[in-house]
Amino acid sequence: MHHDKAAQKTSPSKSEKVPLARAVVLHEDDKLRTVGFPALHQTETKRVTFATPLYAKCTPIDGVWSTDCLVLSVWDTGAQLQVRRPGDLTEFYLLFTSSFRPVFRQCRRVSACGNVIQVEYQRNQADSL
Length: 129
Fold this sequence. Notes:
This is PilZ domain-containing protein. This protein is mainly beta.
């Protein structure tokens, strides 16, 4: 009988307004996984890796020269690029030219391994030309 009273106290009455759950967080192998929209917990950066890399151009800030590159993957704050001469690219514009509406990002090289570099987008910029 004592158990029934506890159950009655926790169930809301019809007049009480109970907020609806926006998402359900599942725990699996010490990783949070969110089901629902919008996600309440963002535990990992969403990254898109291209099976066929995208063609793009890299131009230094002064705009004196440009070089071709391949975009291997992108995420909200950066990208992974394959370039010919990674030492020449420290701060530059990355121009995505494969769509009808070119998009560019101002980038700063964060790391390099051979001819593959990781870049971080600089935030003070317009999204397109």
